[in-house]
Amino acid sequence: MLRFEGDRPFPGSPEVVFARLSDPQFLVPCVPDVETVKSLDAQGADLVLKPGFAFVRGLLEVSMRKHDPEPPRSVRFEMSSKGIGSSATVVATLTLQSQGLNATTVHWVAEVKSLGGLLKLVPAGLIRGAAEKVINDAWDRISVAWAATATDAPVSPSVALGGEAAENASA
Predict the structure, then answer these.
(1) What b/e string do you get for 20-43 counting C-beta neighbours within 10 Å, with b at 16 or more?
(2) Does 72 sit behind a cis peptide bond, omega within 30 degrees of 0 on the bond before it?
(3) Maximum CA pair distance of the chain?
């Protein structure tokens, strides 16, 4: 189906980067458009999203699960979403590579494995554009949360991100 990939640099050893980027409790506040966090633990989360796209109306129930962690090298997440008349499954894989002392590059791949219901009728270009926006927004939020938690200041990722969705994610 659709595949997206890229590289992101992070300060810290692969062990430090893996610990944060494989932790749903760190990641969930970074997910765009979260309305409610229904459950959250070390293996994943169940969320309700209100996406801001014209071709997806209403709320989406999303299940995010961690699979195949290989500390500090790689981890995979599967996200399944269901809404009124639509469904999707996305698999994201993060692979970490040390870049010397206190630096790590994360190579990420996100693949849309399935689209169901009305999403099948949406043009691929529109899906691609929406997915790229969500991916970029998530990485931007991860960067903000990373910077906030890397300092000595007592700032949680949800506070650093601000807004109602971040507050709901930390509840």
Answers:
(1) bbbebebbbbbbbbbeebeebeee
(2) yes
(3) 49
Number of helices (H), then strands (E), belonging to the chain: the values are 5, 7
The DSSP output letter for 162 is -
**pLDDT for 143-161, tens place per residue?**
999 999 875 333 344 434 4
- E-assigned strand segments in 12-43: 34-41
Q: How far is it, in rounded angstroms, from Cα 160 to Cα 147?
A: 9
Mind giving me the DSSP string for 36-91?
EEEEEETTEEEEEE----TTS-S-EEEEEEEEEEETTTEEEEEEEEEETTEEEEEE
The string of pLDDT tens digits covering residues 50-92 is: 987 767 778 999 999 999 999 999 999 999 999 998 999 999 9
What distance in Å separates the CA atoms of residue 145 and residue 127, rounded to the nearest whole number?
27
If pLDDT is split at 50, 70 and 90, which confidence band does 29 have? very high
